């Protein structure tokens, strides 16, 4: 997730004013980061319900 943040901040945000493709890239990275976060929360909740072995 830190990698997504670095790409967003230093590569995509400065290019938003000049290119529409940067805005699409920022949107894609934001959705990917959101999906990754939801996946992590889902895995943690799954592991929390499993019995210890």
Task: Tell me what you see in this structure.
Helix content is 77%, strand content 0%. With 53 residues, it is an all-alpha fold. The protein has helices at residues 2-12, 20-49. It has one domain. α1 (2-12) runs antiparallel to α2 (20-49).
Set down the secondary structure blueprint.
Elements: H1 2-12, H2 20-49
Helix pairs in contact: 1-2
Question: Which tags fit this structure?
Answer:
77% helix; 2 helices; mainly alpha; 53 residues; single chain; rod-shaped
Task: Give start-end ranges of low-pLDDT stretches.
Answer: none
Structural domain count: 1
Residue fraction in strands:
under 5%
Mean pLDDT comes to 86
Order of helices and strands: HH
Structure classification: mainly alpha
Question: Which range best describes the helical content: under 10%, 10-25%, 25-40%, 40-55%, 55-70% or over 70%?
Answer: over 70%
The main sheet comes to: none
| Silhouette | rod-shaped
Give the radius of gyration.
Answer: 16 Å
Give the strand tally. 0
Q: End-to-end span in angstroms?
A: 30 Å
Secondary structure tally, helices: 2
